[in-house]
């Protein structure tokens, strides 16, 4: 008899999470660990990587390895996979989640007409080049193992639809003006394209590749933004970070064994309007 709840267990699995110290990433790492996976937390933020790894390892059955790495560097990407295999013997899940804007807040949020090619390339290197490198390196390892795996790549609602720029007037995050720059939408749309390619490319090897497409998540935006964004959502509000975790656990598990090339949208209904 099939245990349907057992299909969601990740016991004995090994997951690599890039951007694992980020706002959503830390929730993803904790969720994967609670579901039974050993978690390799990859981020450039050394303090947060250590903190999350220590938190997971302090749990009764938690297993975590923290790795500080710049995953836009192919050599460091290969080292991440090698360290994961040395520590846990295999890799079953890749959550390709890292995303960023580079060091300059003002350059990242500049108007499209003034956007610099340097800033564009900086974001593309983080949001899509690094994703390509991680998928390539982990895919090689999964092929060596010969028993498949699950790759989940974080896109965005703004990778499948355009932003409503009307919500940004008077909108702030951590006391700084925000918008959605073209490079963000473009890079997140590229995630969907890469996902669909890899889903068909590795399908005969039982490596499933899907995209996670979260909508706006509350993380310190001011009341003006939250109210305007919430008015665009059928459920009437932004997401809370834990509400995105269940989608990751589903795509990582055997419950999604027949799901590949899919964009799992978790946006409170935004794209339905």
Query: Low-confidence parts lasting 5 or more residues at pLDDT below 50?
Result: none
Q: What is the CATH H-level superfamily?
A: NAD(P)-binding Rossmann-like Domain
Number of helices: 8
**Overall tally of structural domains:** 1
CATH topology: Rossmann fold
Q: Which percent range fits the helix content? A: 40-55%
What is the strand arrangement across the widest sheet?
3-2-1-4-5-8-9
**Largest sheet entry:** 7 strands, parallel
**N to C succession of SSEs:** EHEHEHEHHEEEHEHHE
Q: What proportion of the residues form beta strands (DSSP E)?
A: 15-25%
Overall mean pLDDT stands at 96
SS elements, strand count: 9
Instruction: Indicate the CATH architecture.
Output: 3-Layer(aba) Sandwich
Rg computed from alpha carbons, rounded to a whole number of angstroms: 18 Å
CATH class: Alpha Beta
Shape: globular
Distance, first to last CA: 41 Å
Describe this structure in words.
- By secondary structure, the protein is of the alpha/beta class.
- It has helices spanning 25-34, 46-57, 74-88, 105-108, 117-145, 182-201, 223-231, 242-252, and strands spanning 14-18, 38-43, 64-68, 93-96, 149-154, 172-173, 176-177, 207-214, 263-266.
- The strands form two sheets. Strands 3-2-1-4-5-8-9 form a seven-stranded parallel beta sheet, sandwiched between helices. It has a two-stranded antiparallel sheet with strand order 6-7.
- The protein is globular.
Please render the helix and strand layout as text.
Layout lengths: L13 E5 L6 H10 L3 E6 L2 H12 L6 E5 L5 H15 L4 E4 L8 H4 L8 H29 L3 E6 L17 E2 L2 E2 L4 H20 L5 E8 L8 H9 L10 H11 L10 E4 L7
Parallel strand pairs: 1-2, 1-4, 2-3, 4-5, 5-8, 8-9
Antiparallel strand pairs: 6-7
């Amino acid at each position: 008899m099939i245990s349907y709840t057992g299909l969601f267990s990740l016991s004995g699995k090994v997951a690599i999470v890039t951007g694992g110290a980020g706002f959503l990433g830390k929730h993803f790492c904790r969720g994967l660990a609670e579901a039974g996976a050993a978690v390799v937390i990859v981020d450039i933020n050394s303090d947060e990587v250590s903190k999350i790894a220590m938190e997971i390892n302090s749990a009764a059955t938690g297993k975590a390895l923290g790795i500080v790495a710049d995953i836009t560097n192919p050599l460091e990407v290969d080292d991440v996979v090698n360290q994961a295999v040395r520590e846990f013997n295999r890799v079953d899940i890749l959550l390709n989640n890292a995303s960023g804007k580079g060091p300059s807040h003002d350059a990242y949020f500049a108007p499209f007409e003034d956007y610099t090619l340097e800033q564009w390339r900086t974001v593309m290197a983080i949001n899509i080049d690094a994703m390509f490198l991680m998928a390539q390196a982990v895919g090689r390892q999964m092929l060596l193992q010969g028993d498949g795996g699950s790759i989940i790549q974080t896109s965005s609602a703004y990778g499948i639809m355009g932003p409503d720029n009307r919500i940004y007037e008077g909108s702030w995050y951590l006391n700084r003006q925000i918008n959605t720059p073209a490079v963000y939408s473009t890079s997140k749309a590229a995630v969907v394209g890469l996902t669909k390619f890899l889903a068909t490319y590795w399908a005969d090897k039982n490596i499933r590749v899907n995209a996670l497409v979260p909508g706006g998540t509350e993380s310190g935006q001011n009341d003006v933004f939250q109210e305007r964004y919430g008015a665009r959502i059928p459920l009437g509000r932004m997401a809370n970070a834990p509400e995105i975790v269940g989608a990751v656990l589903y795509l990582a598990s055997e419950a999604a064994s027949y799901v590949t090339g899919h964009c799992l949208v978790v946006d409170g209904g935004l794209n339905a309007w």
